[in-house]
Fold this sequence. Notes:
Blueprint: H1 2-19, H2 28-43, H3 49-78, H4 80-95, H5 97-112, H6 116-124
Amino acid sequence: MIYHHLFAVTLAFFLDLLIGDPPNWPHPVKWIGTMISKLDLAFNKGAYKKRKGLSMLIIVLSAVLLITGLTVYLAYLIHPLAGILWEAVVISTTIAQKGLKQAGMDVCLPLNERDFPEARLKLSYIVGRDTAILMNPKSSGAPWKP
């Protein structure tokens, strides 16, 4: 059985290398981010924020473990090959080597051309922070020098 998982991880690596994360496909990591955002709105207020944060962490991890574990388990019940393929697909959505490289290049190119508004926009696609507030390198308080 361990060989099935090793093969699934290897297959996931090559799947991500070949197709990456197509932008219009459903993406579990985006769903998890949406769940975290909604829980953050509900939990991150009032007293006992640390306890609520721990509760939120437990909810997110439990949901992810339950859904992925159950779907992979059911796929293996159907057939070992179905399990390997489904496990590879699930793992490939978390690797994102191709997509992250492309996203980094999408930020790097406008930076090299000193098109900082475009670089901020491209950066906003891959980070959870408001990139509009990043400092302008031409301002007196620039945190870095090109």
